[in-house]
Amino acid sequence: MNLRQLEVFYAVMKSGTVSGAAKQLHVSQPNVTRVLAHTELQLGFSLFERIKGRLIPTKEANLLLPEAEKVYQQLGQFRNLTNKIKAGEKHLTIGATPILASTMLASVIAQICQQSDYTIEVSTANQDELCDALIKNQLDMAICFGDDAPAPLVQRTLLNTEMVVLSPKGSSQPSPLSLESLLADDQTLISLDTRDPLGIQLHRVIHAIAPDHHPQITVRNYSAAAELVAQGAGYAIVDPWTAQQYDQRVQCHVLEPSIGVCVSLLHAEHYPLSIAAKWFVEQLEQSL
């Protein structure tokens, strides 16, 4: 039974007459009769008995109905999806690291939703979790740190900037600060987890200067590093957005030599950006 035969069968089951099915499907009655007869011939059994002008479903037809309803509903969902795509789907699922979601993305999303009928769902996670969600088609795109991505994903650089040194409020450290002086200082240099893109960069630079350095405190969350600095636990080197959020509670310094920060857009190679997603990226790039 092909889709056209399924449509006719389902319409007759619901209306009980050829005329009703023809009206529902916007076709002629002879067309319905012809498709129905051909379907019964292919199946090798009758689907309806003609009694007093009405078509009464046979036992076989009633057995087929539940499965036919499932397929028919899926067909309707498929048609709705194609109509949305044609009109331009205006719902986006975006993933981001927490700090980028609350800073870089927040203002752009607020402006878009105030000026359009877009609906946007934002999920926050670390980079590994974001990449996994993209591969599983759970996200349209992700905004995160780093210029690298697994093979199934496409990476596009949105912005390049530099990491910032945080020191406790009231400290007498100059700006800029050298990484060598921080490593030689008695105060703790709070480290970022090497599973994190910024943590990897920081670890490589530190290891080149002091191969035997072992951090006393390691965190994966940038805000946790900044909070530890605010509590007087030591120094931290973080992204500029985290530094900006904590600039009233800590002191910020330029780092020498600088350590670059790349902000990237990621999406699945097998799931290209939709028209709506491309438009969102344009708005985001204009805001940077």
UniProtKB/TrEMBL annotation:
Residue stretches making up the HTH lysR-type domain: 1-58
Domain of life: Bacteria
Gene Ontology molecular function, alphabetical: DNA-binding transcription factor activity; sequence-specific DNA binding
SUPFAM superfamilies according to UniProt: Periplasmic binding protein-like II, Winged helix' DNA-binding domain
Keywords: DNA-binding, Transcription, Transcription regulation
Gene Ontology annotations of biological process type: lysine biosynthetic process via diaminopimelate; positive regulation of gene expression
Record InterPro entries: LysR_HTH_N (IPR000847), LysR_subst-bd (IPR005119), WH-like_DNA-bd_sf (IPR036388), WH_DNA-bd_sf (IPR036390)
Family: Belongs to the LysR transcriptional regulatory family.
Record-given protein name: LysR family transcriptional regulator
Organism of origin: Vibrio aquaticus
